Every structure is written in C-alpha cells, then in structure tokens.
Amino acid sequence: MEATLADETQHSYVGPVDPSQFLEDYLPCLNSTPATPCLSEEDLEALKGLATGTSAIDMYEQFQMTLGRCVRGMIFADTSSDLVKDTFPIKPDFALYEEGVVAPGEMDVSTAELCIELIPSMSCDPFEDTDLSKGGFEYPLERDPEEAKKMQGKITAYTVAQVSSQFRFFAFSVVVVRDHARFVRWDRAGAVASARFNYVENSNILVDFFWRFSHLSCEGRGHDPSVSPANLSEEDAQKIREILDLEAGTALFAFEVPHKDGNRLFYGPRFPFPVRSLIGQLSTRTVPVCDFVKGKPGKKALLKEYWRLAGMRGEVEFYEHLIKHDVPHIAPLSRRIHTLFSHRYLHRLVLGFVRRRLTQFKRTRELAVGIFHAMEAHWKAFEKARVLHRDISVNNILIDENGKGVLIDWALAVLLDDQGDSNVIERHDRMGTWQFMSAELLKNPGQIHTLQDDIESFVHVLRWTILCYLPGPMDEVSRKEWGVQTLGTFCDSAFRVRYCNPPTEGDKRLYDFVRAEFSEGLLTEEMLNADSMHKYTLCVERLKNSQWFLNTLEDALKRPDWPGDDAADANLLLITEGTSR
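The structure assignment produced for this chain is given below.
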C-alpha cells in the first residue's frame, strides 16, 4: 500500500517552501488570533530532548509534554500503538483532535485534524531540500532511497485515510526528523512541503504552526462547508435510514447541492472506505442519499463524488450530452455541484436511482442482458453522440428494477470532436480499470484508447463475472461446453487478430486464390470458413464497430434454453480473492 501510494504521487510534490512563507500562505493569522505564546526554558530543554531521541518512542513523551501547550481547544493523542483498521492499517505517531471528540488512547481517523510523524533518522526524510536562495520549488522534491520512499508512502497513507473518511478539500501534516521538522499541505493534486528547519533553534516556527492551526476555522483546516452532520430529529433520521437500508443509529450527513430554486439538502451516511488513492481515479466515491421534504424522505438516489483535472470535461456535461442525443440505458441525472480547487474540480452529482450491481444477477440471462444493454448504450454514445466511455468495468454496469442494464460512470469519457479524429483518442492519464483494460493498453501504457479497447473490456467483464460468481466445472473440456461461458469464448475470438502476427504477403496471395476457388464453386462455404486468412478477415471486420457483438448477444438472448436457477454466488469470491494483482 505504501509503495503504491509513493508511486502514484511521484512528481506530485511541490517545494520546498520557506517555513515562514508556508505559514503566511496556508495558515493566515487573523486579527482575532491571540498572540503566539513563547516556550519556557523548561519547554526548550524538552525540545532538545525530543531532538536527541534515538527512537520514535523516545520522542513521544517529550513531544506531547512540550507542544500540548501550543494549541487551544485541541489535544495531541499518542496513536502510535493504535492500529486504524476501518480504512487500511495505519499508525501515525500523533494525531491532533478537537477536545472531547475522541477517547484517550483511541485513533479515530474520521475525526483527526492533523497527523504527525516522528522520524529518528535523517535517512528516512521523505523530501530533498534545495537552496531556497536559488528560488526553491525544485522538481522532483521527493527522495529516492528506499527508506525515504517508504516514508513518502506512509505519510500519504495517513492523509488518504483522513480525507477518505471525512469531507475535505485539503489537510495538513507535520513530519519531525530528529532536530528538524517540515510542514505538508495535501490536496487532490498532490502536496506542498515546507523546507526542513531546526525546531530547537527556531522553536517559534513550530509553535506558531500549531497555534495558528488550532485557531483556524473548520474550513481553514480543509473541511468542506457543503457537508455537515444532519440536523434531524431521531425519528426523522430513522425514516431516512429505512429508505436507504441503513442500520439503526448510522450517522447521517447533510449534502448541500445547488438547485435552480435554491440549495437542496440530500441526506446520507458517510462515504464508505477504504479509498486507496490521493490523486488517482480510485478516489471516486458513491453513497446512497435521499432528500427530506415536509417531513417525508424522498426516493433513494445515488450521490457520486470525484475529482478531475481542470480543463477536462465533467461527467455532468457528458450526461447532458448523452441525454440530448437520446442515448439509452444510462442513469437519470438529478443534481450536480462542482468546485474548482488547486487545479482540480470536485464534482458531486446526484443520480436519480440506486440499482443492483452486475455481480448480483439473478440468472445468467440477466447478466447477458445487463452487458447487452450497457454495450448498446456505449455504441449509441459513440455513434450518435460521438462519446467514448473509456472505463468499461464490472462496477460501471448496473441492473435496474426491470432487469435491464445501465452503463454509468462517464467521468473518464471523451468527446470525439474534441480530438479531431473519430478513431483515436489522446489520453489525459491512464484510463480504465486495469483488470478489464484491453491487453493492448496494458502492454503499451501510452497507447491511444480506441473503440476496440472498450469493446474488449466488455468481453473481459463478461468472462471475469462468470469466473468469479458462477459455480461450474473447472476442467478445460467441460468449460468449453458450459452455458454462458461459450458466449464469452465466442465474443473473445474476434480479438485474436489484435494479438497474433499479421498476415504475410504470401498469406494474402493464397487467400486471393482460395476466394477465387470458392467463387467458381470449387470450394464449399465450410471449407472457406475453415481458412485461417478468411477467419482473420472476418475478425477485422467485426472489430470495426460494436454491431457484430450486439447481434451475437441479441441472438443468444433469443435462445429458449437459458437456465432459470443460476444466480450469482458471492461466496465464490473467497476462492478468488487476492488473485487480481
């Protein structure tokens, strides 16, 4: 996990910023802020003890005793021995909380205001300082040694856990390395780090940081003001929980969403976690919500939150464009909100439905119907609206109450007219969910994303879902004759031409001869179809668009011999869990 986050955020750090300038830029001191206190001689001596600690444990007591007097309305909690399990395993050395929100000795990442890491060795400093007199902001800021990379991933994991379990635009952390410290400010674009400074010689900088931080408003500390704890009676809150199928006592939050008649409030639980990404696609989150009007909860809906780069089209724009072109089998759009922050937009949209996942199919025919309708939506979007989805995955195909498929999550889509070429698409970043990406894109990370890549992803979704959720024989002979598996194998056959050696000139001349023999009646159609070059030519034609795949699925769905009792078996995931690496 730490290594993954370190790799993901590579080249996403900015700095080093002069520590005093960091305070002025990100922790402004208001006129109402009391003067920063000065440390006593005793406190300064304690700081020296902190600086000479040979292990993180040696530094804990000195840190808490000295800096606990530098905050107001907040407390430092030693969280080094309390493993956070709700997100993923993390143990920051200290966390800063508002007074009264957490019991002593507990680590609650959903209420932590700040994480602090104490590092006894300079070799583990995650960042490289440059000469600030030369302008700073060198690139890259991160250090390469293994222990430094591990620390980069570690402090990033703290932030990912914090922002994923809260509603935030940004967050802060402090890294203490022996007798030096640095400040870090994180958001969905990466992080800004201060230069490392000696906190024994410049104790006022460290004290000033914590003093200013504890006097900031919630919004100044990074909290999203459009989300707040629900102000409802317990009776009304329980009505909403019942609509959303939540357990009694589940904490509810109010999400403020702009509307033409004024802001609307939607109520729902905290976003589920873990989210394992700071800046990537995996930071997308969804949660069921409903509004509450005149004492009654509305219909269940789905609130989606994700971040995108400024300059890219938002998902709402794509939904509006698809609706305008009458693209079928997409989610109804209800409300939206977007906020520009640090070169990235926070998007929240409310989709007017909540449906079953594709992996909750009641029969294999319903699975095939779901994929058929999703592929139909995909092809109509490409053909009529000139939109390419670019993220076909099992999570982005749902089944509605009538057993029909719905294709969702157009956040990574692209409008073909933006690119000037209807066949090839430039990529802003890695597009798609890797388990379902085409082999071509996986082999060539910089490859242009095409229609054929998305079609291949549909086939991967079908076969992956069958393997993970449908009991069946595992020997090679039996699986070839095994119900819906044959449909996946048949669709898969068209892609062999993408990964085999292209025909030679000799192959082409021989094929011309074969076709001539066939036209003169010297070869049967069966013999022509058995020719390898003829098969190659047919597959090339089939891959030009989605029509052959749609026709194949439609023909299969007309068959009367579909089983009636082969629902998805989620227990099979226990067997395959951990294999998709």
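Interim note for the steering committee: Residues 421-429, 574-581 have pLDDT under 50 and may be disordered. The two ends are 12 Å apart (CA to CA).
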